[in-house]
Each structure stands twice: as structure tokens, then as C-alpha cells.
Specification:
By secondary structure, the protein is an alpha/beta fold. It has one domain (3-153, 178-204, 247-255): Vaccinia Virus protein VP39 (Rossmann fold, 3-Layer(aba) Sandwich). 40% of the residues lie in helices and 18% in strands. The protein contains 9 helices and 7 strands; from the N terminus they run H-H-E-H-E-H-E-E-H-E-H-H-E-H-H-E. The protein has helices spanning 3-16, 27-38, 56-62, 76-86, 127-140, 154-166, 183-192, 204-217, 229-238, and strands at residues 46-50, 68-73, 95-99, 112-118, 141-152, 196-200, 249-255. It has a 7-stranded mixed beta sheet with strand order 3-2-1-4-5-7-6, sandwiched between helices. Strand 4 (112-118), helix 5 (127-140) and strand 5 (141-152) form a beta-alpha-beta unit. Helix 1 (3-16) runs parallel beside helix 4 (76-86). The two termini are 35 Å apart.
């Protein structure tokens, strides 16, 4: 991992502690991620959260009556705050937080029923490293299990910027520490590996409202960060309706099937 990327997340941990803002300030988008990933986590399973940050989302998923959940993150400072959060939970033996790297997960093959990431692959600077992370997540998932990649994608960013251009709004950009996945590239790779997958476009309506319409009907300077009340309105709509291809955050759900299928 490039040093400046790790430094960014170490600084986020120090700045925000146990708050969800250590991972991202957009609490509504985080809730959509948690809800979406949660749909693919059955009760009573062993789960791995790869890139757990300070454990905010990990602990939310743990409420599903899981057999166990393990969170790993390459930032020791994030893990330190995750372990502080753990102290507030019941059944602490069923949840653990460890330092680890998605490119070389410190677990045996076929350890977990469900493995998921949340905006983690995009922190890897090259497609080759991103593929290594994908393979590692599949390796530690049990046959018959599920891998969920909830990540940011390039094509929806281009689509949103095309719409913004029509109203002469400035383009949205990737952060320096991000390399958004390309849907076409990811899907071609998964097909070449004969991996069954589906895409869950869970944030399109929310992005349409929070990254486009809000700037047409309100003054963004009046609402710093993600505090614009329109965000919550479109979050509520997103919980009922989705689709359209404008959700930069999307989930790919992979099934690790038995060999020969």
C-alpha cells in the first residue's frame, strides 16, 4: 500500500476516532452500504469484514446474530479504535479486530461463510493489486459462500459528470487515494474466471439527489459536508427505489461455487 494512502487513513482515525466519519462523512451512503451488504449475510455465519476501519459498520453487521465476525484493516490506528468500540458490545468473544492487508489475508483457505469489502479495493493503486485483493477474498471464503465487493465505480462517475456538465456544474473527481473500479473490466475478469456474480446498484437515486439535484435547488455553501437535508430525502427514496446506473457506490455479489459447476 502506498505510504500516502496509509497515512491518510491513519490521520482519519486520529481525527475522527470512533465516529463513522473516520471512514466517510456521508452517513446516509454508509447506511445504504450496510443495508445492502447485510442482505447477503445470513444469521449464524462466520463473516470477514475486509477494510473495517474503526469497526463502525462491522459492529452494525454483528447485530444480525452472527456466529462470528472478524474485521481487518491495514491501519493500526483504525484497529485500535475498533477494539475500543468492541468493549461496548456484548458477546465480545464473537467479534475480533486485527491488522491485515487485503493483498495477503492472514487466514487459511475456506475460513469464512461471507467475506465483504466496503470501499477497500479502490485504495489499491493498480488493477493488478485489485485483482490480488479479489483473489484473496475468494480464497478465504468457504465453497458455497458469498463474497461482496461494495466499491466505487468509474462508469457511474462519468455518467453523473455528463449530467452535471449539462447544468455547467464542476465535475466530481476521484480522491488521490482512490482508483475507482471499472465495471466492464471487473465483469470481464470475473467471467474469465468462471465466477458467478450479480451487481446491486443500490445508490443511484441517492447520488442523483445528493450529487446533482441538490445543487440546482439549494445553495451548497449553506450546508457544509453532507448536511444538506435533500440527502436524507433521497436516502428515503433510495430505500424504496433504485437503479439507473448513477450510483458510484455499487455492490458485486460473487458466489464461490463447488469446483466443476
Amino acid at each position: 500500500m502506498d505510504n500516502f494512502i496509509k497515512k491518510y487513513w491513519d490521520d482519519q482515525a486520529e481525527r475522527h476516532g470512533c465516529s463513522h466519519e473516520a471512514s466517510w462523512g456521508d452517513n446516509f451512503a454508509i447506511d445504504l452500504e450496510i443495508q445492502t451488504i447485510g442482505k447477503y449475510i445470513p444469521e449464524g455465519t462466520d463473516v470477514l469484514d475486509v477494510g473495517c476501519a474503526n469497526g463502525y459498520s462491522t459492529c452494525r453487521q454483528f447485530e444480525k446474530k452472527l456466529k462470528s465476525i472478524t474485521g481487518i484493516d491495514f491501519s493500526e490506528k483504525m484497529i485500535s479504535f475498533a477494539n475500543e468500540r468492541k468493549k461496548t458490545l456484548e458477546f465480545q468473544d464473537n467479534i475480533r479486530f486485527l491488522k491485515g492487508d487485503i493483498r495477503g489475508l492472514p487466514f487459511d483457505d475456506e475460513t469464512f461463510d461471507v467475506v465483504y469489502t466496503t470501499r477497500v479495493l479502490i485504495n489499491l493503486p493498480t488493477w493488478e493489486e485489485q485483482k490480488k485483493g479479489i483473489c484473496e477474498c475468494l480464497r478465504v471464503c468457504r465453497t458455497g459462500g458469498t463474497v461482496v465487493f461494495s466499491e466505487a465505480f468509474w462508469e457511474p462517475l462519468v455518467l453523473l459528470n455528463s449530467i452535471r456538465l449539462l447544468k455547467h456544474l464542476p465535475s466530481l473527481v476521484e480522491h488521490d487515494f482512490n482508483r475507482y473500479l471499472k465495471k466492464q473490466q471487473l465483469e470481464s475478469y470475473l467471467k474469465s474466471q468462471h465466477i458467478t456474480f450479480q451487481a446491486d446498484d443500490f445508490s443511484s437515486i441517492y447520488y442523483l439527489g445528493s450529487r446533482f439535484l441538490r445543487e440546482l435547488v439549494t445553495n451548497p455553501e449553506d450546508y457544509p459536508g453532507y448536511t444538506n437535508p435533500i440527502n436524507e430525502i433521497f436516502y428515503q427514496i433510495e430505500c424504496e427505489y433504485s437503479g439507473g446506473g448513477m450510483g458510484i457506490q455499487q455492490a458485486y455479489i460473487l458466489k464461490k461455487e463447488h469446483p466443476g459447476r
